[in-house]
């Protein structure tokens, strides 16, 4: 499992597209996260992007933040097992939202906090972590 994290329009997709044949599941295309199995083609990487959108939907359901975090952590662990079972790889594209800016709206602050915690969990679970900025990337793990 690889985590590719960076700011908006930093070049994350461009970096990932160079990694090989891939099946994309994107919240930006309104793809539900639960659809991963039907999207993942044989002999291709599975790319999951749009985490902030998927997490925002969970917050809107009035789920407790701790429950959402645990659910996503368990999902990532399940994906890690599936990756090994299929002898393939999963790439998580995550929008970095921290950077010291504190949103005015409470909902947005909750989303920022939860995304930060989820990113930490993803870093722990991933085999490789890449940070992308201005089209450049650096391997952190």
TrEMBL record:
<dbReference type="InterPro" id="IPR027417">
    <property type="entry name" value="P-loop_NTPase"/>
</dbReference>
<dbReference type="GO" id="GO:0009236">
    <property type="term" value="P:cobalamin biosynthetic process"/>
</dbReference>
<keyword id="KW-0808">Transferase</keyword>
<dbReference type="GO" id="GO:0043752">
    <property type="term" value="F:adenosylcobinamide kinase activity"/>
</dbReference>
<protein>
    <recommendedName>
        <fullName>Adenosylcobinamide kinase</fullName>
        <ecNumber>2.7.1.156</ecNumber>
        <ecNumber>2.7.7.62</ecNumber>
    </recommendedName>
</protein>
<comment type="function">
    <text>Catalyzes ATP-dependent phosphorylation of adenosylcobinamide and addition of GMP to adenosylcobinamide phosphate.</text>
</comment>
<keyword id="KW-0169">Cobalamin biosynthesis</keyword>
<dbReference type="GO" id="GO:0005525">
    <property type="term" value="F:GTP binding"/>
</dbReference>
<dbReference type="GO" id="GO:0008820">
    <property type="term" value="F:cobinamide phosphate guanylyltransferase activity"/>
</dbReference>
<comment type="pathway">
    <text>Cofactor biosynthesis; adenosylcobalamin biosynthesis; adenosylcobalamin from cob(II)yrinate a,c-diamide: step 5/7.</text>
</comment>
<comment type="similarity">
    <text>Belongs to the CobU/CobP family.</text>
</comment>
<dbReference type="Pfam" id="PF02283">
    <property type="entry name" value="CobU"/>
</dbReference>
<dbReference type="GO" id="GO:0005524">
    <property type="term" value="F:ATP binding"/>
</dbReference>
<dbReference type="InterPro" id="IPR003203">
    <property type="entry name" value="CobU/CobP"/>
</dbReference>
<keyword id="KW-0418">Kinase</keyword>
<comment type="pathway">
    <text>Cofactor biosynthesis; adenosylcobalamin biosynthesis; adenosylcobalamin from cob(II)yrinate a,c-diamide: step 6/7.</text>
</comment>
<keyword id="KW-0342">GTP-binding</keyword>
<keyword id="KW-0547">Nucleotide-binding</keyword>
<keyword id="KW-0067">ATP-binding</keyword>
